[in-house]
Each structure stands twice: as C-alpha cells, then as structure tokens.
Design brief:
Layout: E1 14-18, E2 21-27, E3 34-41, E4 46-49, H1 56-67, E5 75-79, H2 85-88, H3 91-98, E6 102-104, H4 106-117, H5 121-133, H6 138-147, H7 150-154, E7 162-164, E8 170-173, E9 176-183, E10 190-195, E11 200-204, H8 226-238, E12 245-248, H9 257-278, H10 285-292, H11 299-318, E13 322-326, E14 332-336
Parallel strand pairs: 4-5, 5-6, 6-7, 11-12
Antiparallel strand pairs: 1-2, 2-3, 3-4, 8-9, 9-10, 10-11, 13-14
Helix pairs in contact: 5-6, 8-9, 9-11, 10-11
Length: 337
C-alpha cells in the first residue's frame, strides 16, 4: 500500500487530493476523532459527499468552508454514502441550508429515517431483549436502557424526500462519470463512487486503510449475518484496478486496493479462527468480547464490540461450524461442532 498524501488537513481544513476534488476533515466526538468528507468541483458549484457529525461545531465548520475553501460557491448536490451519524447526520441541515436533495441508496435513506424517528418504548424493549440474549448482566442492561436509541438522540432530521442511487448507476459529477459500487456489511447498502477517468474511488467506510470497518449485528436485525455480506461484497471492489487512489472516510488516501482487500479478508479469517476456538467451551457474545478485543473499551466501543462478536458468531453459525443454544433465561451460547 502507498500513501501519496502523507499529511491530512487540520480539523476543519481542506486540501486538494485529485483534479477537482477537495478533501475536508471534520471532527467526531469519539476515540476515532475525525471523518473525511469530499467535495467535487461541479462547475456551477460543489458536489458534497457525506455531511459530518450533527452538532453545532460541524455546522460552523461547514459555514467556514463555504466562506473559505469553497469560495462561496454553493453546493449543487449532496450524496451520502450511508446512514451513520458522521455521514448522514447533517443531511437535513444541508438540504435546508442550500436547497439540495439528498441522494443515497434506498436502504440507507429508509434505515436512517426509520431509526431517527423511532422514539418508542418498543425500540428500547427490543434492544434490552437483544442484549440480554447476548449475555449482558444487569449493570450492562441498565446501561443499554439508559442509552436507548442512540442514533435518534443524535440524528434528528433525515430528509423526508431523497433521490435514489443504485449499484451500477453512472453519475455525471464535475463533468466526469462516476459509477456507484455498493458495499454491504458495515451498513446496509453503502454507496461508493468510482471515477475511471480520474482513477479515484470514494470508499466511505467500506474500505479503510488502517482499521477494519465495524461489521455488527444490531437489535433491529438480531439474526443478521453482516460479516458474510461484507466479505462477499469485497469481490465487487477487487474487480476495480489495483492502482486507483482510494479516498476513505477515515485515515489517509491510499493506493493498493487489492492488498487492502486481502488484509481485510485475512483479518476476519483470523478473528473467525479465534472465535471458533473460543467456542470449544459454550460462550456468549458478551464473553467473546474479551477474546476479540484485548484492550479497555469505552461505552461507545462496547456496543460496537458486542455487535462485532455476534457478527463473527453468526457467520460461523451460517457455515455450520457452531451451534446456538438458548437457556431458560433466554441467554444464547455458542458451541463448536
């Protein structure tokens, strides 16, 4: 892998990464403290790819970018790779501020809007049943109850109207053709953008240079197998040239797409072996966290780690390598076959 740009712009800053493409870096309130956003020069204005996290600081940074690097040229389009808060969280504000229409895949728009509007007790009840089955003790269940719908607490206004993009669509952006390549597993129907003329791909969170995208089972789909979908969808990206410049949502732009795909596959193969070995003794998903994550986790990371543990267990379940048993309290344990 090669990193042709060794230094990222400062938080709130911007840099040119390819002809007609501007890189903005915005802050996140997590251990992973930034997200990369991309602006494509579209002659009449700028195509915005992803929005940043929904808070006052990020809105102010957008206003500064509009007055500064964007040269007070209005955004002409808004494309969002997927529904997560750092990618779609400011969509409603940007749509209203600049008179745009959100463009994304159907699954990302529908999932984001649905979860953002779900403030009912049924969501909390379903979540508590999910985490109890995964092996949370009473203290962790109380934490989950307090957390509630964490997405809706952050994201308030996914637009009610959107324009659909799909796998294989060709979008004319900045006078060049960009093809939509859909990834799965990290999100439901994540839209990456590939420009053959520029040999550039905006990869969202699907392919990151130094960390593995979170691939989790969540309470809304408790029997899901997202890791199978993630690994399967990597084949779509292996069909692209190896020497393209990948613009990820976290970390630095890089070349060496095929090498990185191989690393991601290898990472999960190792995790699956560790998971299978741990299942020699029946184990809950909560107990598996300590096997797969050998570091101290904050509350935010804990829920992602639990989802990742379940993703690996469900993959092995689908492969027929483990069985799932449910005790009298509804707690699920997985054992090696």
């Amino acid at each position: 892998m090669e990193f042709p740009i060794s230094t990222a712009p400062a938080i709130g800053g911007a840099a040119v990464v390819a002809p007609g493409i501007l890189w903005l870096r915005m802050p996140l309130p997590y251990a992973l403290d930034h997200v990369n956003l991309w602006l494509i020069d579209d002659q009449a204005g700028w195509v915005l790819v992803d929005t940043g996290y929904p808070d006052r600081q990020n809105r102010e940074l957008w206003e500064a970018a509009f007055d500064g690097p964007m040269g007070r040229r209005r955004p002409s389009r808004l494309i969002v790779t997927h529904f997560h808060p750092d990618h779609m969280g400011l969509a409603g504000w940007l749509v209203e501020r600049f008179g745009l229409t959100l463009e994304t895949t159907l699954a990302e728009w529908a999932h984001g809007r649905m979860v953002s509007l779900d403030h009912g007790q049924a969501f909390v009840d379903a979540s508590l049943a999910f985490y109890k089955a995964a092996g949370f003790d009473q203290g962790l269940l109380e934490l989950a109850a307090k957390r509630g719908n964490a997405y809706a607490a952050r994201v308030k206004d996914i637009p009610p109207v959107y324009r659909r993009i799909r796998e294989g669509d060709e979008l004319l952006l900045g006078g060049r053709k960009w093809k939509v390549v859909v990834g799965e597993g990290h999100a439901v129907e994540l839209a990456c953008l590939w420009c053959e003329e520029l040999k550039v791909m905006i990869s969202g969170d699907q392919i990151l240079p130094s960390i593995s995208p979170n691939v989790s089972v969540w309470p809304t789909e408790p029997d899901g197998d997202p890791l199978r979908r993630f690994i399967s969808s990597l084949e779509r990206f292996r069909a692209l040239p190896d020497d393209i410049l990948v613009l990820p949502s976290h970390g630095l732009p890089f070349r060496g797409l095929h090498e990185r795909i191989g690393q991601l596959e290898g990472h999960h193969a190792e995790r699956l072996e560790e998971t299978l070995e741990a299942c020699r003794t029946p184990i809950t998903a909560t107990e598996l966290i300590a096997v797969l994550f050998r570091r101290k986790l904050d509350t935010h990371q804990l829920f992602f780690a639990l989802g990742e543990s379940l993703a690996h267990l469900h993959y092995l379940l689908g492969q027929g390598k483990v069985a799932r048993d449910i005790d009298g309290n509804g707690v699920q344990r997985f054992r090696r076959l």
